[in-house]
Amino acid sequence: MKNENWESGEWDNEPDSLDWIDDYSGYECKIKRNKLAGFLSGYVSIPENNRFYGINYDDHEGCEFMVHEGVNFSGFCKDGKYRLGFSCDMCFDVLPLKSEMPELEGDETYKNIAYVKEQTELLAKQVYELQYRNYLKPCR
Q: For every residue of 50-101, which 3-state class applies, written as one string?
């Protein structure tokens, strides 16, 4: 998807979504692009038999998942699946959306589809491995 309010950049040649099954965990993974600002978000579908199924991301038994700026989404989606996810619209993330922001200072980067896929697979691995552990902090 191309938005007239976006700058030109590497996002012009990326897909706007990606679905796959993570090889390690067997969990369904998804990447979606935000239609307004153009940033990517990664999601992992959590099976019903996993301890994290249905739990708000702020209440994951003291667990802090180690993915890009942390998990900031949990919920049931339109397809009925429960997902955990993260977004790449945080501090130091470059967004495709044109803005009135001051000049970049050098540390900001666009989180491309390869990066978001890697982070989504890292989240899937953590959710899979931590479902059986009693002590969950930190989730590395």
A: CCCCCCCHHHCCCCCECCCCCCCEEEECCCCCEEEEEECCCCCECCCECCCC
Extents of the domains making up the chain: 25-96+104-130
Q: Express each pLDDT in 23-47 by its tens digit.
A: 999 999 999 999 999 999 999 999 9
Instruction: Give 13's strand partners.
Output: none
CA distance 116 to 10: 14
CB 70 within 8 Å of CB 86: yes
pTM of the complete model: 0.88
Residue range 77-123, pLDDT digits in tens: 999 999 999 999 988 888 888 775 556 566 788 999 999 999 999 99
